[in-house]
Amino acid sequence: MVEQKVRLTKEKETYLATLYGKARDATAEHSILGDRFAADAVARIDYDFKALKLPRGGDITLPIRALHFDQWTRAFLAANPVSTVLHLGCGLDTRVYRIDPGPKVRWYDVDFPDVIALRERLYPEREGYRRIGSSVTDLSWLDAIPGDTPVLVIAEGLMMYLHEKDGTALLRRITGQFPSGQLMFDGYSGAMTRLVSRLATVRGAKVELVWGVDDPHDLEKQVPKLRLAEDVPFLTMPTLVDRLARNGFSRAMYGMMGRLPFYRHLIRHLRYELQGRESPGSAASSRGAGEHLHEEP
């Protein structure tokens, strides 16, 4: 087996940490995501992953987050077999392989050129799949993408890193280019972005989160074609609590915290409908999947 030499700048190590969390879950006895593609990639990378100091519980929170977005993705593609997927800030995520979209889906993974170059060394080509090496906020990458189908925009682990004006400009461009579709991302509250950034500074990591979402309806005002369809508090998802709670006391603490709006709003999984020409059945289908998943991923 040929090992891949990783040469990423210091701030790009967050991509490796995310991959590592899913790989650890893949080898666990009761795996959440079962991401064998992530496990295979970690086995091929010549890197000291233990030095990444994966945050406590990362091998639980990362797979559960990914699973939720996978379920939403599958529901959208089931309702829209002819569609386009824009996986923004894809990092080293293996979603396109986990989902295995149908032959009429055009799937684009978009991230910085050095990350895309690493993806090309780790993951195989597949029909209907393209990688784009660009900052997501350099909107010229959208010029070559046809806007003739419903679109699914996945921005897992991305939006909090974007400046609000850049993020909304990106979304306005996408919603103007496609007739209908959905947007899904994990939104951090303003308090959460500040907390994560400060904790990272204490650890000596270079992580700066800048876009906080305190009211998900604000995005509807900034990007008029978007309408909020689902707002799922991540930290109170039953499966997450079940996995993280170590004993009755910690379970009770999670239950108490979960009754506080401040805590529930720290991290939310948000799904928006793109209001254009109707994408038949997509809203009802995806809403049903989301309700099932956050109760029992």
Overall SS class: alpha/beta
The overall pLDDT average reads: 88
What's the number of domains? 1
CATH architecture: 3-Layer(aba) Sandwich
Assigned CATH class: Alpha Beta
CATH level-four homologous superfamily name: Vaccinia Virus protein VP39
* Order of secondary-structure elements: EHHEHEHEHEEHEHHEHHHEH
Number of helices: 12
Distance between the termini: 34 Å
Detail the poorly predicted runs: 277-297
Strand order of the largest sheet: 5-4-3-6-7-9-8
Q: What is the CATH fold-level name?
A: Rossmann fold
> Beta-strand percentage?
15-25%
Task: Looking at this protein, list some descriptive labels.
297 residues; alpha/beta; Rossmann fold; seven-stranded mixed β-sheet; two-stranded parallel ribbon; 12 helices; 9 strands; globular
In words, what does this structure look like?
- This protein is an alpha/beta fold.
- It has a single domain (4-295), classed as Vaccinia Virus protein VP39 (Rossmann fold), CATH 3.40.50.150.
- 43% of the residues lie in helices and 17% in strands.
- The protein is built from twelve helices and nine strands.
- The strands form two sheets. The chain has a seven-stranded mixed beta sheet. Strands 1-2 form a two-stranded parallel sheet.
- Helix 4 (95-99) links the parallel strand 3 and strand 4.
- Helix 1 packs across helix 3 and helix 3 (58-79) runs antiparallel to helix 12 (282-295).
- The longest helix is centred in the N-terminal third of the chain and has 22 residues, at 58-79.
- The protein is globular and about 55 Å long.
- The relative contact order is 0.14.
- Mean pLDDT is 88; it is low at 277-297.
